[in-house]
């Protein structure tokens, strides 16, 4: 199974803890402010619809460029290996 650089980045403790913190803040803001919650929900539905449409439209292009994506992903994974080796702080949550 080929590694996916995006999945690896999202699994880094510093990134995952930052994402979790942002999700908690977003959820608590929606809870505390009903008007903001309704605006956010409209925005979320719009983003989901646009994302689905974009994926449908991009599928033929992605299939054609798959070999180039695989090479770029491989290079990015090697670069991430190097960063993880040189910057140990990436292995710790933001609060540490």
From TrEMBL:
The keyword Transmembrane helix does not apply. It comes from the Eukaryota. The keyword Cell division does not apply. It is found in: Lipid droplet. Keywords: Lipid droplet. Its main location: other. Coiled coil: none annotated. InterPro entries: Perilipin, PLIN1. GO terms for biological process: lipid metabolic process. Pfam families: Perilipin. One of its GO terms (cellular component) is lipid droplet. Belongs to the perilipin family. This is PLIN1 protein. It comes from Oxyruncus cristatus (sharpbill). The lineage of its organism: Eukaryota, Metazoa, Chordata, Craniata, Vertebrata.
